[in-house]
Amino acid sequence: MVTKQKISPKKPKKKLALIGWRELISFPDYDNFLLKAKIDTGARSSALHATHLLPYENGEEKRIKFRVYQSKMFHYIDAPILGYKKVKNSFGVSEIRPIIQMKIKLGKESWYTEITLARRSGMSYPMLIGRNSLKRKHIIHPHKSFLQGKIKKSKK
């Protein structure tokens, strides 16, 4: 006896973007402020080095003002707090961090993602991009950097 099996058409797969273990990202909602970011598949969430953290309330909404810094340039940001998260830092110490949502741009793609605010001043990269932010849209090349483009220094 032969049975017929109904085959459903597969969705065409979207091409995954190839990125390096470190990349330049920008914040489109904040004047495309640029930061160097480390891509860390070992981290679940993304973290942003922030200073001058000032949580406050605007009516019922909890918000936070903070400053981001890269190469002698900084930008002040004001964002709603989504909540707080207990995170183990790179030294294995647990800490409670505020969570915000920001739009990030990597190469030609941009999307909103949750980011924890942390003190990363001793780290080489002010931004750490974790697995949840990548959303299975990227392939990471562990031996290459800035595959999505690098800023060219202007000649003086």
CATH topology call of the domain at 17-48 and 83-141: Cathepsin D, subunit A, domain 1
| CATH hierarchy, class of the domain at 17-48 and 83-141 | Mainly Beta
The average pLDDT is 87
Q: What are the secondary-structure elements, in order, as H or E?
A: EEEEEEEEEEEHE
Computed structural class: mainly beta
Largest sheet: 6 strands, mixed, barrel
What's the gyration radius in Å? 19 Å
Query: What is the overall silhouette?
Result: globular
Distance from N terminus to C terminus (CA atoms, Å) equals 80 Å
Q: Determine the fraction of residues in helical runs and give it as a percent range.
A: under 10%
Unreliable runs: none
Total of helices:
1
Order of strands in the sheet with most strands: 2-3-11-4-10-9
Properties at a glance:
156 residues; mainly beta; Cathepsin D, subunit A, domain 1; six-stranded mixed barrel; three-stranded antiparallel β-sheet; 1 helix; 53% strand; globular
What topology does this entry show?
Layout: E1 17-20, E2 22-27, E3 33-39, E4 46-49, E5 51-58, E6 61-70, E7 73-80, E8 83-88, E9 94-106, E10 109-118, E11 127-129, H1 131-134, E12 138-141
Parallel strand pairs: 1-12, 3-11, 4-10
Antiparallel strand pairs: 2-3, 2-9, 4-11, 5-6, 6-7, 8-9, 9-10
Short overview:
The protein is an all-beta fold. It contains 1 helix and 12 strands. The chain has one helix at residues 131-134, and strands spanning 17-20, 22-27, 33-39, 46-49, 51-58, 61-70, 73-80, 83-88, 94-106, 109-118, 127-129, 138-141.
